[in-house]
From TrEMBL:
Organism whose genome encodes this protein: Desulfosporosinus orientis (strain ATCC 19365 / DSM 765 / NCIMB 8382 / VKM B-1628 / Singapore I)
GO cellular component, one term: large ribosomal subunit
GO annotation (BP), single: translation
Keyword Ribosomal protein attributed: yes
Protein name, entry field: Large ribosomal subunit protein uL10
The family this protein is said to belong to: Belongs to the universal ribosomal protein uL10 family.
Pfam families referenced in this protein's UniProt entry, alphabetically: Ribosomal_L10
PROSITE patterns in the cross-refs: RIBOSOMAL_L10
Function: Forms part of the ribosomal stalk, playing a central role in the interaction of the ribosome with GTP-bound translation factors.
Amino acid sequence: MPNIEEKSLVVSEIKEKFQQSSGIVLADYRGLTVAQVTQLRSQLRKAGVEYRVLKNTLVRRAADELGVEGLDPYLKGPTALAFSADPVAPAKILTNFAKENKLKTFQIKAGVLEGKVIGADNVKALADLPSREVLLTMVLRGMQAPLAGMVNVLQGPIRKMGYALEEVRKLKAAQ
């Protein structure tokens, strides 16, 4: 049994993870085989997400010390936490993993987004958002469209002048 100092060290480590992460997803990992857990951890690691199984009491204590409210109902039974600086990555990976493997026992319990607790439905909605790169591409396209239109408008008079000069050249050549 770990002593009080070890537990307080773990609590401070969990607090640090909470503060450094924009997105945290809590999941009930029951029913996963060792191979599935290894595969899941590998996918999460590639995306820069840390996945840990932690004691509910220590997570509860860390959340209370940070003022994160509403997490208690989700801290029952086996709980794994996925911490990430990207708020969408853990939600997307865990949700897709559960779908791909057709897991009935693996459940997303809740999430913490920018310090606020969100339910499982909101975590799944977050997972349905396009990736950061796709969103940035969409914004960039939106910014480029008016510029492309303006270039076409500005080229119009130049183009018309070119047509007029061509007609003048044809007239001169015909004479």
